[in-house]
Design brief:
By secondary structure, the chain is an alpha+beta fold. Helix content is 41%, strand content 22%. It is built from 18 helices and 24 strands. Strands 11, 12, 13, 14, 15, 16, 17, 18 and 19 form a 9-stranded mixed sheet that branches. A hairpin with a 2-residue loop joins β6 (95-99) and β7. It is globular. The relative contact order is 0.09.
Length: 676
């Protein structure tokens, strides 16, 4: 049926050409097109985003990927140099237009289609990559349609990826964002209900579901949208087809939208009509941001007691104990520490949002998937441990000896930055939901959530710095501090050992040997510099670190997928999960990484317990495990669908029911009750 409609439309467009000639001057086009690259000098072996900018003349409109009842999707035939690969076309959120009773999904103003191009490796700087193509599209008014073609041309020159074009930020903001949770749909006769998980605190304005799955619903039929708690329900007339999957975009109003990926399932009956929300719907978005910000603040505060953060916080405890009564100096150091923490959290958040906007499936703690970052952290933590143990004394490495001078403030800032950087593997209570919300909120709100996470992490030391009564409860400085320094070096050494183990998991024995060699050379040079006060030795120490990073293999043979063990786990894949659910089996899925301390604690304290394994076997529960140590695009996308930006994540799939997310801090009872 759809193909007949398209054929009839194209026939009408051809017959209407004489009428169009009366509206456009000879040689004029209804749509102007141009190609713009985000980087004019992309890096060899990298990627570059190119925008096909389409600007219809007033009164004309172009079409979305699914044009609706009438229209044609834009088609691009590329002619590319050898090795250059064009990715899929990413469309912004469309608009609705009803013409003669037909629903059209259109763009009535300037819009940009984004395409990622892979630049071949090994191309010398200055190499010109001619991007050529031909775009065929349909452009219409309310009365006539005209098929047009445009020759596309853009020359890229291999270089060093200069500053990105800021207009791409606006174009990416117009793209729909991943929802983060799987939707469900159910067909009842000629009606189709779609259940879309969306927190009640998130306000919507004129919501509408734009289907990408052709024929799943009747495009021109009205959509009744209602709420049932944290579920948005779309009720409309079903289409001619009965799909096994349903994709589309949920428009929230204001040009914002969410990518929806649905599977057959149970959808509640219609709830409260969305129009009944009335004036309260407007500030709901603000409430969602405030709730996410509060969750990030609490999550950051709880990170202070997580085992992956405590070794770094111990450095500040010594510094504050050494502070005495110098109020101004203490406050300056507290503020510097907070700025270091917040700066790293916001910086990592900005990089995360930028990479995700470019199509990369990554989440929180993404930098720890790079073995070079692990090596750098290993050497830094080892240097701090040796300093605390008394092997050498370097003010730049210590926790800050002189709170009144600039060195103390600088030491506090970098201690805070280090604490935030090392804290990223942890995802504690409140934090997972808050960071998941940041993925679907506007970028400004998302960055505010990352800043809230940093503020929560820095809050205890801000309070100690600005509330003298709390600081007076700290023990007075004395000889005990020297002993405490050496005691606190123990968890730092253990942290270094943990990082070395992660490095071995990521790069194999060869990478660990390079790391041990760099650590030995760096430790010897730091000892010599500290004892002899010859700071020139720091230069070869830095060179040894740089050489180790360069020589470190980017990836050894992939770590064997986790499996077996007490839980008899299988490696995770969405296909395997779907197959097990189709068999009617209950499934327990957990996602972990070697650098995630919370994950390792849960595994040792709960998942590797015999009683847990026995309970899951009795319940015939299949266990799937996803290893995100080195990053995995499929796992990254799955985490997004479930509203998470990092690990751990624990899900239980009971037969015929929606998945249940477990707390991020597990207990034996939490898991065994799944069977009961």
């Amino acid at each position: 049926m759809t193909r007949l409609v398209l054929f009839f439309l194209l026939l009408l467009a051809t017959l209407a050409w004489p009428a169009e000639a009366q509206m456009l001057a000879p040689g004029q086009r209804a749509v102007s097109t141009r190609l713009i690259a985000e980087h004019d000098a992309p890096v060899a072996g990298g990627r570059v985003t190119v925008a096909l900018v389409m600007t219809p003349r007033p009164g004309w409109h172009g079409y979305w990927k699914n044009p609706g009842d009438a229209g044609v999707e834009t088609r691009i035939a590329w002619q590319l140099p050898s090795g250059v690969v064009a990715g899929a076309v990413h469309y912004p959120v469309p608009q609705r237009l009803i013409v003669a009773g037909l629903m059209n999904y259109v763009y009535e103003g300037e819009h940009a289609l984004l395409i990622d191009f892979t630049v071949p490796a090994g191309r010398a700087p200055g190499t010109v990559l001619p991007i050529r193509g031909k775009a065929d599209y349909l452009v219409c008014t309310d009365e006539i349609c005209v098929p047009e073609s445009a020759d596309l041309s853009l020359d890229l020159r291999v270089g060093r990826a200069a500053a990105s074009n800021p207009i791409f930020d606006r174009w990416r903001e117009a793209l729909p964002k991943p929802l983060g949770s799987a939707a469900a749909f159910a067909r009842d006769g000629n009606r189709l209900r779609i259940g879309i998980p969306l927190p009640a605190a998130i306000g919507v304005e004129d919501p509408y579901f734009f289907p990408l799955t052709d024929g799943a619903l009747a495009y021109s039929a009205p959509q009744a949208v209602s709420r049932a708690g944290d579920m948005l329900i779309v009720d409309t007339k079903a289409g001619d087809l009965a799909p096994t999957a349903l994709q589309g975009v949920l428009s929230l109003g204001g040009g914002q939208g969410l990518l929806v990926d649905g599977r057959p399932g149970t959808v509640p009956a219609s709830g409260i009509p969305i129009e009944a929300a009335g004036p309260a719907a407007a500030p709901a978005g603000t409430r969602a941001i405030l709730l996410a910000l509060g969750g990030a603040l609490l999550g950051g505060l709880l990170l202070n007691v997580m085992p992956c953060v405590f070794p770094i916080l111990s450095l500040k405890a010594l510094s504050l104990a050494r502070a005495g009564g110098e109020e101004r100096a203490v406050r300056r150091e507290a503020v510097a520490y907070a700025l270091g923490v917040i700066g790293i959290c916001v910086g990592l958040g900005a990089v995360l949002l930028g990479l995700r906007a470019g199509g990369t499936a990554i989440g929180w703690a993404f930098q720890l998937q790079d073995p070079r970052v692990i090596l750098l952290l290993l050497l830094l933590v080892l240097a701090i441990a040796l300093n605390l143990a008394g092997l050498f004394e370097l003010p730049s490495v210590s926790a800050g000896s002189g709170l009144a001078d600039r060195g103390g403030v600088a030491g506090a800032f970098w201690t805070g930055a280090l604490a935030a950087f090392v804290a990223t593997p942890c995802t504690g209570p409140f934090m997972g939901a808050a960071l998941g919300a940041a993925l679907v909120l506007p970028h400004a709100a998302a960055l505010a959530i990352f800043a809230g996470l940093g503020l929560g992490l820095a809050l205890p030391f801000l309070l100690l710095g600005f509330v003298p009564a709390l600081r007076r409860r700290l023990p007075r400085p004395g000889p005990w501090m020297g002993r405490m320094r050496r005691i606190l070096s123990v968890p730092m050494f253990l942290t270094a050992l943990g990082l070395a183990w992660i490095l071995e998991r990521q790069t194999g024995t060869h990478g660990v040997l390079i790391g041990v060699a760099a650590a030995s050379i760096t430790a010897a040079l730091l000892w010599w510099a500290g004892r002899r006060r010859r700071w020139a030795a720091l230069a070869p120490a830095l060179l040894s670190v740089l050489a180790a990073i360069i020589l470190l293999p980017e990836a050894a043979n992939p770590v064997e997928a986790r499996g077996g063990g007490l839980l008899r786990a299988e490696p995770f894949s969405e296909a395997r999960l779907a197959a097990l659910r189709a068999e009617g089996r209950p499934v327990f899925v957990y996602f972990t990484a070697d650098w995630c301390v919370t994950c390792k604690v849960n595994e040792q304290a709960v998942l590797n317990r015999q009683e847990v394994a026995d309970a899951l076997v009795r319940g015939k529960v299949a266990v799937l495990v996803g290893d995100w140590t080195r990053g995995d695009a499929e796992i990254g996308r799955f985490l997004e669908k479930n509203g998470r930006s990092g690990v751990p994540l624990y899900l239980h799939y009971a037969p015929g029911k929606a998945p249940q997310a477990l707390p991020q801090i597990l207990t034996v009872g939490t898991v065994t009750r799944l069977v009961a």
